[in-house]
Write a structure and sequence with these properties.
By secondary structure, the chain is of the alpha+beta class. The chain has 2 domains: 169 residues, GAF domain (Beta-Lactamase, 2-Layer Sandwich); 157 residues, Alpha-Beta Plaits (2-Layer Sandwich), CATH 3.30.70. Helices cover 42% and strands 21% of the residues. It has a 5-stranded antiparallel beta sheet with strand order 2-1-5-4-3, with helices on both faces. The chain has a 5-stranded mixed beta sheet with strand order 7-8-6-11-12, with helices on both faces. A two-stranded antiparallel ribbon has the order 9-10.
């Protein structure tokens, strides 16, 4: 059939030329009469990707691994109009929420521990982004005690040198926000950060956590950056109660004089785990400030949260603590803290208030906890 058609066209060249001319004329007519708005305008998409690249370049210009995370939270939040994003990493041997974006709506509480059978855990376990649309709050993003999630969520793991360093958990009331283009942009942000953190200057390895320091405590620069974000969030979401303070060991001079360095290090390791707020069902963080002085952040709607935490820790410490050298003694902790208010001016102010409160607690042996 095809051979006969070809032979027919070759034998009737005049007809073939007339058909070709008719097709050309018809093509020109169609082009001239096609409305201009029927042709897709790619300039808007090109502008969006150009803006995205500029935003990404700004994030990657940060030299600190910690500031990279906080800048990435701000960039991801830009694409979540009716939701928010939080970042989880290891803190005291467990995964917990350590930061949220400034404008995150219904943000996960700081210090909320991650549980199994959650979207964040699945992303960390698989090493791949996980997307889910919520039905009656399921699946959970991080923890069964979180506020019921609606819309959809997207969890993106941060993997550096084959070690899981964190996970970004994004949520928005509208599942349509997470189209393929947006998901690609969000994943690309996290992947580009991971590529930058591979650099030897950051010291990332298969054994090392980037955002915690000695005893698994949150890095001072990290909790301070989180504190700055929470200061800004206090003006946007005044109903959320965020307490910041310091906790330290009583009679420290006597203890240091009687015990060896390895026993003292073991003591600090044990104390920070006993004082972990998640052990008593509270959302809170513990970070390093100095030797034997630890920063804490407790967040939620309960105005008695700090009191409940202190009471629980002190109850555990009624029993003598066993030292590495075989001796034991009763350990007491002192606490000084302040509430982050919408008129708080800076992180330096909060740190100063918490120090003053702790100093008052230490000066009075009968006072274990003091609020500024």
């Amino acid at each position: 059939m095809i051979n006969k058609s070809i032979r027919g066209f070759l034998d009737n060249r005049l007809i073939t030329m007339l058909l070709f001319l008719a097709i050309c004329i018809g093509g020109v007519w169609v082009i001239k009469d096609t409305p201009i708005d029927a042709i897709p305008d790619l300039s808007e998409n090109q502008a969006q990707w150009s803006d995205y690249q500029q935003q990404l370049d700004h994030v990657l210009s940060e030299k600190s691994a910690i500031f990279l995370i906080h800048e990435a939270l701000a960039l991801i939040q830009y694409y979540l109009k009716y939701g928010g994003v939080s970042f989880l990493t290891r803190n005291l041997d467990a995964w917990s929420v350590v930061a949220s974006s400034e404008k995150a709506f219904n943000a996960l509480p700081l210090g909320m521990p991650m549980e199994e059978q959650t979207l964040a855990n699945e992303a960390i376990y698989s090493g791949k982004p996980q997307f889910a649309i919520h039905f009656n709050g399921n699946p959970w993003r991080v923890n069964a005690s979180e506020h019921l999630a609606s819309g959809a969520s997207f969890a993106i793991p941060l993997i550096v040198n084959d070690r899981r360093q964190g996970v970004f958990v994004c949520n928005d009331e509208s599942p349509l926000v997470f189209n393929e283009s947006t998901k690609h942009k969000l994943v690309n942000v996290v992947n580009m950060i991971a590529l930058k953190l591979v650099s030897p200057r950051y010291g990332a390895s298969i054994e090392k956590d980037l955002f915690t320091v000695v005893h698994g405590l949150l890095d001072p620069d990290f909790w301070r950056s989180t504190l700055i974000t929470e200061l800004r969030r206090a003006t946007l979401y005044p109903k959320i109660k965020t307490y910041f303070g310091f906790v330290t060991i009583s009679q420290l001079h006597e203890i240091r004089a009687k015990h060896r360095l390895d026993s003292l290090q073991q003591l600090q390791y044990d104390i920070v785990r006993l004082a972990n707020p998640s052990n008593v069902g509270l959302s809170g963080l513990l970070g390093q400030f100095s030797d034997y002085v630890y920063a804490f952040v407790i967040q939620g709607s309960d105005e008695q949260a700090v009191g409940k935490w202190v009471k629980s820790v002190n109850k555990v410490l009624q029993k003598p603590v066993l030292f590495k050298d075989g001796s034991n003694r009763v350990i007491r902790l002192h606490y000084g803290y302040t509430l982050i208010k919408d008129d708080s001016t800076s992180d330096d102010q909060l740190i100063s208030e918490a120090k003053t409160a702790l100093s008052h607690a230490l000066k009075n042996p009968d006072v274990l906890v003091f609020e500024y």
